Amino acid sequence: MALVPYGDAVLPASLGRLRRPSAEFRFADRTVRLAQDWQRLGVAAVVWDAAVVLCVYLEAGHVALPGTKAVELGAGTGLVGIVAALLGANVTITDREPALEFLASNVRDNIPPSLQDAVQVSELTWGEGLESYPPGTYDLILGADIVYLEDTFPALLRTLEHLSSERTVILLSCRIRYERDQRFLTELSRSFTVEEVHYEVQGDIHIYRAMKRPERADL
User: Which subcellular locations apply to this protein (predicted)?
Assistant: First the structure.
């Protein structure tokens, strides 16, 4: 979500892999090769571990993807949305406008011609222009490492509310780094049931499943 450029001097040595111009993975019996551009687009243009863990979770079959209408929020390099599409979902892959050209290039390079119609790249700044997205029409909402900037939490919550119906499954893959991250989950649970469905110990990454609570009929 945040498009913050960083110089090499700022990036810790332990994260040197993020300086690489590309990252390669194997999902859905295909090689997925993604461009990275830390210096130009910052956190939006590198593959974070939470995205990889969510892709592993999807490939393991924990969610029925074929024919599913899905949307990825804050897609960055597009890894999660690309893998969801390769596994059979119809996916709208979204991010803010400055990242779209970069994101679309990764999608074009990794989605075979036979699946191009099942994927679209679209601008979505959380909380803005939501009327362009029909409310409650998605079966699945995906987000990897998008819970980290407290200023964006109210807009993210509004976006999740708008895109969800009571049948929509939300999967959020993230580290809980700070108390504010836990507060986001608390706020989310006011309108959604939230449960942890996976924990990857090595990377300290949680996957949370959320679904909108049914609205109570007036008594």
Answer: Cytoplasm
**C-alpha Rg value of the chain to the nearest Å:** 17
pTM of the model: 0.90
Nearest one of 137, 139, 174, 143 to 157, comparing CA atoms: 143
CATH number of 13-212: 3.40.50.150
CA distances (Å), 207 to each of 23, 50, 110, 171, in order?
22, 9, 25, 7
What is the tens place of the pLDDT at every residue in 24-67?
A: 999 999 999 999 986 776 676 789 899 999 999 999 999 999 99
SS3 50: helix
| Maximum Cα interatomic distance, the chain, rounded to a whole number of Å | 61
Q: Where are the alpha helices (DSSP H) in 14-170?
A: 38-41, 49-59, 79-86, 100-110, 153-163
